Amino acid sequence: MKKIVALAFGICFMGGAAMAQTLESKYGLDSAKTIENASIYTEFVKQKNYKDALPAWRYVFFNAPKFQMTTYVRGEEIMTNMFMQTKNHAYIDTLMMVYDQRIKYFGNHNRYTEGYILGKKGADLYRFGKKDDATLKEAYGYLTRSFELEGAKTHPITAQIMFFAAGELLKKEMITKDEYIGLYMKLSDYADNGIKNASKPEMFQDVKGKLDAMFFDAGVADCETLNKLLGAKYEANKEDVSNLKEIASLLRRSECVDLPLFAAVAEQLYKIEPTADAAYSLAIMFLRRQDFDKTEGYLKEAIAKSDDNAAKGDYYMRMAQLKLAKKQYAAAKTNALEALKINPNNGAALLLIGRAYASYSPSYGEDDFDHASVFWVAVDKFQRAKQVDPSVAEEANKLISTYSPHFPNKDEAFFRSVTDGATVKIGDWINETTTARFRK
After folding, report:
1. 282's torsion region: left (phi>0), alpha (psi -120 to 50) or beta?
2. pLDDT digits (tens, 9 = 90+) for 411-420
3. Are 290 and 299 in contact (CB under 8 A)?
4. Which of 141, 281, 330, 363 could cross-link with 429 by S-S, CB 3.0 to 4.6 Å?
5. What is the pTM assigned to this prediction?
6. How far is CA 124 from CA 10, 135, 201, 265, 426, in A?
């Protein structure tokens, strides 16, 4: 009798163990198969053999979803690589399932929360999904939901891709201009917070720069809009130097320095912290007011105080432009050369020097030949500008077309014993050697 009872108890115990082998158990329906298949696909993934990893991975994914988070990490790798190899969007559909199931079973695993996973899901759908309106909107929805859930903890790449997607939606008129601007302000504040508080602020600084670039490229940053947005931002915190610097930079970049807001920000910034950037903001303000003496004074201060080479190059260029406008051609060249020391491929600086030469031509030498010979060195600068800086090529070509017809003619050159191709020295403050060529 005891043996029968014991046997019956054993059968019940075994039956209970079998009943425990379900999808919701860690090892799924069959622990031995789960462990075996996990080992198989892991080895194939290490070898980057994603095709052969698929069958074993699928077993674990469908039959033991709670086994380990690695199932989902490896699943992302397998699906993205299979898509890259085949361009079959079925793998992206499966990738979306991977993210959904990861949220269900591992949606609160350390810092890998639902919001974080939705960010990855939205980013991958944006990058790899079908290029249609519905997919774009779906991806944007995941990204915005991620940002809502994560807040300041949002990964910088998620924020960046969300704004990329928003830009495309704006072009398709699937979001409004106001919605786009509102998102920019939220993301700008998020990036500022990251720069101030993150242990690695470099990523946030990079994202901040890209957000600004995308915003201005979108063509929504007109002065009226910026005045409304940035005016509120200024009034909210007039004592925050970084806030003032950002507002001044945005207004300068949008050429909205005629706004009373810019004057208020520039003066407040200089009052709190009279840095090179603050002095430069005042210089721009006075330049627009055509108060050239004050402009020059603040530009000199900005140059003297700046320890940022890129910014200093901009200050020298602005000074060179001011000197050119005041017909102080030698001084214009001097400042443009300082900009070129900082960036030898600054095509704008070379164009400016060429313009200074061309403008000075009526004052050079004693006769028409001397005056016209200056156009040789001016065109030399225009040619050099487009060689080192393709971005100025169109403008350089226009200037070359404008001034080349004013070269000396052969008759004038004959009496100077100057032949085509001869080396000629242009003196005075220009002090350049050039090659003689004649107008046709």
Report:
1. alpha
2. 777 778 888 8
3. no
4. 330
5. 0.63
6. 51, 11, 24, 41, 61
